[in-house]
Amino acid sequence: MLRLSLRRSFTVLVLLALSACGRAPQPVPPESLVIRINILCTTCDEFLRCEDPGKPAESRVYRLREKSFWAQVATIWDYLVQWIRRKTTDARPVTLYLERGDVRTRIDLERAAQLDLVAGRLSVDDTTIDLRDGTWRATNGEPRGTCVQMPRREGYALVRRWLGRPLPTGAP
Fold first, then answer.
1. Do 60 and 49 touch, CB atoms closer than 8 A?
2. Measured in whole angstroms, how far is the alpha carbon of residue 127 from the centre of its chain?
3. If you ran DSSP here, which 8-state letter would residue 44 be given?
4. C-alpha to C-alpha distance for 92 and 97, rounded to whole angstroms
5. Rounded to the nearest 5 degrees, what angle is found at the Cα of 143, between the Cα atoms of 142 and 147?
6. In the chain, where are the structural domains located?
7. What 8-state DSSP symbol labels residue 34?
8. pTM above 0.85, yes or no
9. Ramachandran angles phi, psi of 26, nearest 5°
10. Rounded distance, CA 127 to CA 132, Å?
11. What is the pLDDT along the chain (172 residues), one digit of tens a residue?
12. Distance between CA 38 and CA 89 in Å, rounded?
């Protein structure tokens, strides 16, 4: 009985020590974010529409795609250790849908989008998007415009239209 109690006490002390030593910086509170991306949802697609007021005929939509099967499996670990070390960064595959007038282009970017919830920033290719206010900047800090998060339904509908595929019946 005493031996079991000592083992439990030791286990609790080790877990407390690990949680105290591994304190990571806290993420920006979700209520202060204009663009909210669930960092633990590996099967969720997120759509961000970015527009440059200097180029009104151009529109960009960044689609943060779902992760690969093995990346989704690895996320199980992130769920399990949330109470010890909260996940604040992530990388997601991204596709850029670019519209210039009547010309539509789809580009699968080679580099993944880097999400940092401590800084409240999403870095995609040559741009940075501030998740707190939607400011869209070049990597050198030059302002490019603003971005808004699209509802997933609208994002999927936009992608289907750009690809020339009909919307499912009953969809707007």
1. yes
2. 14
3. -
4. 16
5. 140
6. 25-162
7. S
8. no
9. -80, 145
10. 15
11. 445 566 665 565 555 555 545 556 777 777 778 899 888 787 889 999 999 888 877 889 999 998 777 776 766 776 676 667 777 888 899 999 998 888 888 889 989 999 999 899 999 988 999 999 999 999 888 999 999 999 999 999 988 888 778 777 655 5
12. 11
5 three-class SS: helix
**HEC sequence for 139-162:** CCCCEEEEEEEECHHHHHHHHHHH
Listing DSSP states for 64-115 in one string gives EPPPPHHHHHHHHHHHHTTTTS---EEEE-EEEEEEETTEEEEEE-SSPEEE
59 neighbors 51 (Cβ within 8 angstroms): yes
**CA nearest 119: which of 33, 28, 2, 57?**
28
Sign, Cα dihedral of 109, 148, 34, 42:
negative
Amino acid letter, 38: N
Joined together, the tokens standing for residue 135 give 């400011």
Contact 122, 129 (CB under 8 A): yes
